[in-house]
């Protein structure tokens, strides 16, 4: 795998992670999913638990007996080791169930237990209770479970590993804080909040937590001792099921955007900034010409829809960076809380705010609602806008802006103009699903 291929995987995985957690914000907000100290065991807990299951005569173990034989109490409690079984579909007992007096293996668990039994026979000198490496078959099982994770089978431990991968994609490395007195950089703080929601009562949580997912990723050989992704780590990022769930893939960017792929990478890496321009002058439309559809070429609507969506996502990214940069230049703090896509806060905003971005007006301290419409064409290219979006602009006309991003993929020089207030005051609206143009109505 070339460095260029690795770079593309990280770029698109980062964007796909963002979309997935925007659609599934509960995994970052609800205590039962949110990464934290609850996952302080590394994945070699699997060796310890499978040692107990291998010695059992049935397909289950009894919690009281396990604690008695191991002495796992207090900070080294049985329940923390047990999580690796319940969180990776190795048990018929739910990972959310807190009353697990008996832990029964699932079909997956029985198959893995049988492999561990053979492993013990083939390696009689290895003591699983002390073994710090995962057998290859166990490592592959856990990676497969991560690869096939989606919103229906997400668990605490899987989310812990996956959000650490998200953090890696955001930063390009995994910060390792040796003690709680270490203060993360502003970039790291923003990434910890956006990728993992490491907050409690509006303060950053104990950042030493990140040592645990780092240990897990090492157990899985997804990162090396240098804490950099291995080739297998990149392959996992490329193939994760959660990306297909939000209809995002590297191949879509490459297939749909084609020769523009280099410009896409520059935008996603925040190496391209928007240039503000004046809105084009509104003028009378020339006489309309109705053309015949006879002989029209076949049109790939699926490809067009994907291209429009991807181009729209890039426009939102450009505007988001522009708004944040504008506030940073004014010395505004807590920018991540003041400027964000409504998609990223679905739980709070949902469909109540049919716009793309909420920003902040430092002069008034009020919210600014921003709709982003993006095209690869010129400033006068018409665009679609829904009745709901038009009505929202009318209901919030004092705090509403429309950013028309154009020449979005134009050798690193995308531009935009903005209009203030009601959409219908700035554009002519036509047809049932409005087509907005800068022409004046007759």
Walkthrough of the structure:
The chain has 442 residues and is α+β, with helices and mostly antiparallel strands. The chain has two domains: 3-245, no CATH class; 268-291 and 300-440, no CATH class. The chain is built from 18 helices and 15 strands. The chain has helices at 3-23, 26-29, 45-55, 63-70, 78-86, 107-122, 136-147, 156-171, 186-196, 211-219, 231-239, 241-245, 250-257, 261-268, 301-329, 335-338, 346-349, 387-395; strands at residues 60-62, 102-104, 199-200, 203-204, 275-276, 283-284, 340-341, 357-361, 366-374, 383-384, 400-406, 415-420, 428-430, 435-437, 439-440. The strands form five sheets. A six-stranded mixed sheet has the order 5-12-11-9-8-7. It has a three-stranded antiparallel sheet with strand order 10-14-13, with no helix packed on it. Helix 1 packs across helix 8, helix 3 (45-55) crosses helix 5 and helix 13 (250-257) crosses helix 15. It is elongated and about 85 Å long. It starts with a helix and ends with a strand. Residues 289-296 have low confidence and may be disordered.
Descriptive tags:
single chain, 442 residues, alpha+beta, three-stranded antiparallel beta sheet
In short:
With about 450 residues, the protein is of the alpha+beta class.
Overall pLDDT, averaged?
A: 86
Strand content: 5-15%
**Helix segment count?**
18
What is the approximate shape?
elongated
Radius of gyration: 26 Å
Spatially, the strands of the biggest sheet line up as 5-12-11-9-8-7
Q: Fraction of residues in helices?
A: 40-55%
């Amino acid at each position: 795998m070339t460095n260029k291929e690795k770079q593309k995987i990280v770029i698109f995985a980062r964007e796909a992670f963002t979309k997935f957690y925007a659609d599934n914000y509960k995994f970052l907000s609800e205590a039962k999913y949110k990464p934290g100290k609850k996952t302080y065991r590394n994945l070699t807990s699997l060796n310890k638990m499978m040692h107990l299951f291998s010695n059992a005569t049935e397909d289950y173990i009894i919690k009281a007996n396990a604690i008695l034989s191991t002495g796992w109490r207090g900070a080294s409690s049985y329940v923390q080791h047990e999580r690796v079984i319940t969180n990776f579909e190795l048990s018929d007992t739910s990972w959310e169930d807190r009353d697990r007096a008996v832990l029964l293996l699932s079909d997956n668990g029985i198959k893995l237990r049988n492999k561990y039994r053979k492993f013990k026979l083939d390696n009689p000198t290895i003591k699983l209770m002390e073994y710090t490496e995962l057998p290859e078959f166990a490592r592959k099982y856990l990676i497969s479970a991560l690869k096939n994770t989606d919103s229906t089978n997400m668990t605490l431990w899987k989310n812990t590993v996956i959000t650490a991968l998200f953090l890696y994609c955001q930063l390009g490395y995994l910060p390792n804080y040796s003690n709680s007195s270490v203060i993360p950089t502003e970039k790291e703080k923003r990434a910890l909040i956006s990728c993992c929601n490491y907050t409690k009562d509006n303060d950053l949580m104990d950042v030493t937590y990140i040592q645990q997912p780092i240990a897990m990723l090492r157990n899985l050989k997804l990162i090396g001792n240098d804490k950099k992704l291995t080739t297998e780590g990149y392959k996992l990022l490329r193939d994760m099921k959660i990306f297909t769930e939000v209809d995002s893939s590297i191949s879509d960017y490459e297939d749909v955007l084609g020769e523009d792929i280099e410009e896409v990478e520059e935008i996603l890496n925040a190496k391209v900034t928007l240039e503000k321009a004046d809105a084009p002058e509104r003028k009378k439309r020339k006489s309309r010409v109705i053309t015949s559809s006879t002989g029209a070429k076949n049109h790939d609507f699926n490809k067009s829809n994907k291209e429009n969506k991807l181009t729209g996502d890039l426009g939102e990214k450009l505007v988001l960076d522009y708004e944040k940069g504008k506030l940073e230049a004014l010395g505004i703090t807590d920018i991540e809380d003041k400027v964000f896509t409504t998609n990223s806060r679905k739980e709070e905003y949902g469909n109540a705010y049919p716009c793309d971005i909420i920003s902040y007006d430092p002069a008034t301290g009020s919210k600014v609602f921003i709709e982003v419409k993006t095209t690869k064409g010129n400033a006068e290219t018409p665009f679609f806008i829904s009745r709901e979006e038009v009505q929202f602009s009318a209901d919030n006309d004092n705090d509403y802006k429309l950013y028309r991003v154009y020449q979005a993929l134009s050798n690193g020089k995308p531009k935009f103009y903005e209009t203030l207030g009601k959409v219908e005051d700035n554009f002519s609206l036509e047809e049932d699903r409005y087509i907005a143009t800068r022409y004046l109505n007759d």
